[in-house]
Amino acid sequence: LCLSTFTLAVSAGAVLLLPFSIVSNEILLSFPHNYYIQWLNGSLIHGLWNLASLFSNLCLFVLMPFAFFFLESEGFAGLKKGIRARILETLVMLILLALLILGIVWVASALIDNDAASMESLYDLWEFYLPYLYSCISLMGCLLLLLCTPIGLSRMFTVMGRLLVKPTILEDLDEQIYIITLEEEALQRRLNGLSSSVEYNVMELEQELENVKTLKTKLERRKKASAWERNLVYPAVMVLLLIETFISVLLVACNILCLLVDETAMPKGTRGPGIGNASLSAFGFVGAALEIILIFYLMVSSVVGFYSLRFFGNFIPKKDDTTMTKIIGNCVSILVLSSALPVMSRTLGITRFDLLGDFGRFNWLGNFYIVLSYNLLFAIVTTLCLVRKFTSAVREELFKALG
């Protein structure tokens, strides 16, 4: 549990890394000679990026595998059962896993870049293999974000609609609550009249009663909500989500045009002037604030989209019903998504802040066709998801009309 908590802390650090760097750059531009912010410099920012990369590697390849293998271990046969035996088995499994992964990475790098340097790099684990391995994980994370984020952007409207109180237009909440109350009482009477031996019917009625109580709670919450909460907050949040989504797609479209005419728009293009030397946005601090809002919005959307996928639907943590293995899986998934967030933000042109540390050494970021395809796919898939979301009601009515 402690290792999982540490992994989530590293994930939070990876998410905050790019926003903190953008804010630091604008602060240094606004107060270049202020004595109280001399500690905020390029060396500190570079160090934080390197630490984020280091701890991400540590969690992905050491701590989380150790936690998983330790949970599954029982100790080798013939040894006395206990913590020591389980730790020994876990360490052996980690060593075997490390050898397997390094072998796969060495073969992959030799196939992709078949020269003497690639073969000799077997002796240079720290400078080549860990960054290369992290580059592969980052690429998979970016592909996962490409799948999750467009779905999450369309699902955000549904999620916020469930959390907020919708306007009551031509609805009589008192009548609905009265009907639900009668239904609840009827179910309660049926449940009290059933014999405890009829287990299947009892469980079915209890589940139905729970659903009715949940619906009644939602209706009572809508009734108690103030007028401004019902009629102002919900439309304002929906409009805000729509604006943020539109700006995100617009920035990606502009980035596609920049990629076609300017090679410095590549994520691994020409290095910028450095931290505190030039603004990253044409709108100064306002533009930087907008970039930060969009980065957080994309991260939240990616998490929503991740748990909306059918394959990962069972990963959703539930109170008092989540195994430790599922917690480890959630932590690893969140870490992969958060580590790939700075790379995705730079690749899509959400921000112009240059990737620092090992994040800027990913070879695939210099491939024009990969970067352009990533931008095109994101724009197309996001647009299709939004069109499908907002036209679903119309399509359902058409299908009903056509029989």
TrEMBL record:
Q: Which GO terms describe its molecular function?
A: transmembrane signaling receptor activity
Q: Which GO terms describe its biological process?
A: signal transduction
Regions crossing the membrane: 48-71, 91-112, 132-153, 232-262, 282-307, 327-344, 364-387
Q: Does the keyword Transmembrane helix apply?
A: yes
The protein's UniProt keywords, in alphabetical order, are: Membrane, Transmembrane, Transmembrane helix
What is the residue range of the signal peptide feature? none
What Gene Ontology cellular component terms go with this record? plasma membrane
Q: Which Pfam families match?
A: LMBR1
Per its UniProt entry, which superkingdom is the organism in? Eukaryota
Entry's family note = Belongs to the LIMR family.
Name of the protein this chain belongs to: LMBR1 protein
Q: What species was this sequence derived from?
A: Crocuta crocuta
